[in-house]
Amino acid sequence: MLAVTSIIALSDRLRPHTFIYTDLHAYPLWWIPVSLLLTLVVHDTYFYWMHRILHHKKLFKATHLVHHQSTNPSPWTSYSFHFLEAIAEGAVIIVLVFSMPLHPLTIGLFAFSSFVINVYGHLGYEIMPKGFRKTFLFEIINTSTFHNLHHQKFRGNYGLYLRIWDRLMKTEHPDYVKHYDLLQEKRFGQ
After folding, report:
1. Among candidates 53, 140, 41, which has minimal Cα distance to 88?
2. What average pLDDT does the segment 66-89 reach?
3. How far apart are CA 163 and CA 44, in angstroms?
4. CA distance 134 to 159
5. Element (DSSP H or E) covering residue 7
6. How crowded is residue 29: how many other Cβ atoms within 10 Å of its Cβ?
7. pLDDT in tens, 137-178
8. Which backbone phi and psi does 141 adopt, to 5 degrees?
């Protein structure tokens, strides 16, 4: 993703055709965090559908199987995938820079946030605090347990950041919440 971003952002021929702006004051400063949140929502939507497509039996063996060879993922798994999958994943930046105004700061924060969240999703260990289960955020965002279950079962839990698409499309693993609760009970007791 960073390579695609760099090519677009640094290319004098491509950048003028995008919504990348370099004057920090061309938009209100509040647009930086708002556009960052929007990039993450767009990326989550893009990733959900791309991920589902990669699970099609004809594409899975040719591309996504490389990533799924880790049934108990680790942070290294977060960027262990086939070259064609890397291209498909990196293409989200093309969608972003051609659809909304983005400052290079936002693009950098997006790349960093994506990296951190992707590593967290592939920890193979849950780090959320004890009280997280009782917050409204638990109903919205993915956890390491959420994605780990995807690696164990190879089906469902396709989302990257959010549970929204999996819930809407009824692809969330039916035992996710129970599985999460059991893991947290082992960590913290009752």
Report:
1. 53
2. 67
3. 9
4. 21
5. helix 2-10
6. 9
7. 999 999 999 988 887 777 889 999 999 999 999 999 999 999
8. -100, 155
